[in-house]
Amino acid sequence: MSAVGVSVVVCVYTEDRWEDILAAVASVRAQTHPALETLLVVDHNPTLLDRLRSEYKETYEVRVLPNAGPRGLSAGRNTGIAASRGEIIAFLDDDAVAERDWLRRFADPYSDPRVLAVGGRAVPVWSSGRRPAWFPEEFDWVVGCSYRGLPPGRVRVRNILGGNASFRRTAFDFVGGFASGIGRDGSKRPMGGEETDLCIRLSRARPDAILLMDDRAVIHHKVPEAREHFGYFRTRAYAEGLSKALVARSVGADKGLESERRYATRVLPAGVVRGLRDQLLARPGGARRAAAIVAGVLTAAGGYAVGSLRARRAGTTFAVVPIPADRAERAA
Question: If we measure between CA atoms, which residue out of 210, 195, 205 comes closest to residue 116?
Answer without folding.
Answer: 210
